[in-house]
Amino acid sequence: MPPSPPRLPLTDLPVEECVDSLRVALAEQGHAVLQAPPGAGKTTIVPLRLLDEAWLEGGRILVLEPRRLAARAAAHRMAALLGEDVGGTVGLQTRDERKVGRSTRVEVVTEGILTRRLQRDPSLPGVGLVVFDEVHERNLQADLGLALVLDARPIVRPDLRVLAMSATLDAERFAALIGARSDDAATAPVVTSEGRSFPVHLRWRPQPGSTPADAVTTTVREALGSEDGDVLVFLAGAADIRRVERALKGTGRPAWVDVRPLYGALTLAEQDLALAPSPAGRRRVVLATDIAETSLTVDGVRVVVDSGQVRTPHHDPRTGLTRLRTGACSKASTDQRTGRAGRVEPGVAYRVWSEGEQATRSPFARPEIATADLASFALEVAVWGTPVDDLALLDQPPSGPLAAAQELLRELGAVDGDDRATSLGTQMVGLPVHPRLARMLVQADDLGLVAEACGAAAVLEERDVLRGRPHERPADLAERVRLVLDPSSSHPMVDDGALRHVRRRATDLARRVLDRRKLPSPSSDPGGVGRVLALAYPDRVAQAMGGGRFRLRHGAGGWVDESDALAGEAFLVVAQVGDPGRSDRTDDRILLAAGLDEQDLERAAGVDVERTVTLRWDASADDLRVRTEARLGAIVLSSVDRRAEPGDEVRAALLDQVRTTRLEVLPWSSSARALQHQVGYAHQAFGDQWPDLSDDALIDSLDEWLEPRLHAAAGRKDLEKVDVRSVLRDLVGRHRVHELDQLVPKELKVASGRTVPVSYEGDQPTISARPQDLFGTTTHPAIAGGRVPLVVELLSPAGRPIQVTADLPGFWAGSWNEVRKEMAGRYPKHDWPLDPATASPSRRPPRRR
Predict the structure, then answer these.
(1) Domains in the chain and their CATH numbers?
(2) What whole-number distance in Å separates Cα of residue 310 and Cα of residue 308?
(3) Residue 633, CB half-sphere, CA atoms under 13 Å: how many?
(4) Residue 662: left if φ>0, alpha if ψ -120 to 50, beta else—which one?
């Protein structure tokens, strides 16, 4: 039994008034919800007041904070109230820090620490109460941790107490959720603390045309000149904080004003400096992200300047990538921020947008489960074993992103086809990183590349170790990993502070993976970073398309500057992309990637590489070809074309090409077309006793007349050997060809003794001849025993049409005289008699057209 903790003196914090109600609720029902506004003291007072409860039996209270910075501040504040250091009665464990001793009774944890413990032992031995702080923030890890506790509690720990604490009016929803999993299925008791706040005067400061950072800078200077007290500034992210910090530290800042940034990536010393009260005679401006809305108390503040913006992660299932988006925060967030100015006395809050714009903002922020990458969540659930639909979640995950997350886990080998965790997945869930990086770390040892994997994971998790804007920095991840692993290396753009931080994280990962206190030596493999990165991002390999452009496996495009070292790589593994940043580019800019050779790519992709053999008509070669390809999604790893070999599939492909070209691929001669038209007219004029040899009919019957002739065919040359005229004669019946010529002759002898071809292409059979060849003709030319008159096209000596007639004797007697006059003037050397019906025909050949 640990020694009794020091007694906490009574404070004047508002939450003290409802501690007794909490004691009763937890003792009698085992769970409760505490609703208390920021500043009421719920985070630091409640756990300490519950330490002596009989039902706790000397066990620990586990306090889950959704943010590392808030967890550390809460632990230090509680320890200070007891007159101790962290690690005594009050302990702390985050991803980067652990201060827990044998006497620890209150342990503040964050960032998946609770889920790690639940996965190892759902009974949480030694823990009597789990406190979920700031549940209204709807952090995904907090939602999941609460769901797992409520799932395990009825079976393995019915005596475990659960307390959810919220700063907003979401308390009733949490009460219903927690109560639904209890034996009596009643709503959990809700205990409310009224809190303590002073009036805050709102001042609207819209500045059209200004960036948020510029607008905030101007407004902070105004506040410093017209208000007393410390100033808390809310900005979207670290980039805006650094911009405002540089501007305020320039000219125009009073010497007694300190500017302190406050965000998660800062060192512990920098965070402590921002949270420490201002010394006498000095003021401070704290530039913070939304961490300071409710999770964190910043003492001494009576002025708030709010940019009205927040950066939140949004996952794109199409690309599998998550990007931070900057947007307007909700009305609830702006109200929480404003309230920070009225903690200790009446205050002032400046908003750098208009009152009208405020009315258009959404009432509440969307929960993280609705917008975040669900891969870690899905892996935790798979290892836990309870279906998602059966977990006590305030909001179920959206089906599309959840399905995409499960598909990714299958691709990583973390779950099987039924979405049950594999042995690899169970190993992966034990590492406090994204499943992609967890797979890379777990399997890197097999490649002898643990150092590279730890370095790459640390760089990807933390801030970039190179300074500059994203489009100014090189995209090569291997260059950054070299800086992390080799202390003697250098780079003109290196950020020394970030590099030290990333090295510490890489060392921590090596300890978790190999149980070593320092990083192992890197390998001599120059492509090692690409090889391990492909373990994490097998779906984001990319193939060079020239000019710095790449095609990713899923089909999207990406690019690097042509001057970037990665522009010359044949293949990349892409870890991070960003907006193009250029008007001439629409694809994403590749921000972080590593080179990869084809052999390693195929090894990483494994069974996902599809090897296909395709028989197709190659338009460029205008021939049938067999293409053998190795593909990874949209990436073609290899492609070999060769000549096809005879067979059933080849014959079918050749017939398809004949259909596609509507017979034009076949070697049609003029005599073949003439015969087709000849038979076509016979079919039209005399019925089905003559076959239909039109293109449509021939296409419909290809299998009957062409397929037998392609037995040994392999390509276009074999189609070109087909004698189409001979095929048509066979379809007519060779014994009937003479009969056909008698009925619808190919040619006709005219009065001059010459023979002219008969054309059957039009609706009526036609001949073309000079008038001189027809002089003396008194009966109109006809075929089929005189039953079918021909259309006669009369030609000039130059071979041009001058008249068309279906009644030659009538033409002689009628309009011939006008034609004769015109032609005699133009061609005086030719005969143009007054009565052609009685004139002798001429044998002079006509000119060629």
Answers:
(1) 14-192 (3.40.50.300), 200-366 (3.40.50.300), 375-463+489-517 (1.20.120.1080), 610-643 (no CATH), 649-742 (no CATH), 747-826 (no CATH)
(2) 7
(3) 15
(4) left
Question: Is the full-model pTM beyond 0.85?
Answer: no
How far apart CA 361 and CA 799 sit, in angstroms, is 84
* SS (HEC) of 739-787: HHHHHCCCEEECCCCCEEECECCCCCCEEEECHHHHCCCCCCCEECCCC
Q: What is the pLDDT of residues 69-97, one digit of tens each?
A: 889 889 999 999 999 999 999 999 998 78
Tokens (6 digits) for 301: 């503040």
3-state secondary structure (DSSP) of residue 256:
coil
From the list 566, 468, 558, the residue with the least C-alpha distance to 242 is 468
User: Encoding tokens for residue 219?
Assistant: 């407004």
Query: Mind listing the pLDDT tens digit for each residue in 492-520?
Result: 999 888 899 899 999 999 988 887 667 77
846 pLDDT higher than 60: no
506 Cβ neighbours under 8 A, 6+ residues apart: 454, 455, 457, 458, 484, 485, 519
Query: Among the residues of 628-736, which ranges form H helices?
Result: 648-660, 670-686, 695-700, 702-705, 716-720, 724-732
> In this structure, are residues 77 and 34 in contact, taking their beta carbons and an 8 Å threshold?
no
Q: How far is Cα 535 from Cα 238, in angstroms, rounded to an integer?
A: 30
CA 53 vs CA 36, 47, 57, 691: distances in Å: 21, 11, 7, 104
Categorize the per-residue pLDDT at 336 as very low, low, confident or very high, splitting at 50, 70 and 90.
Answer: confident
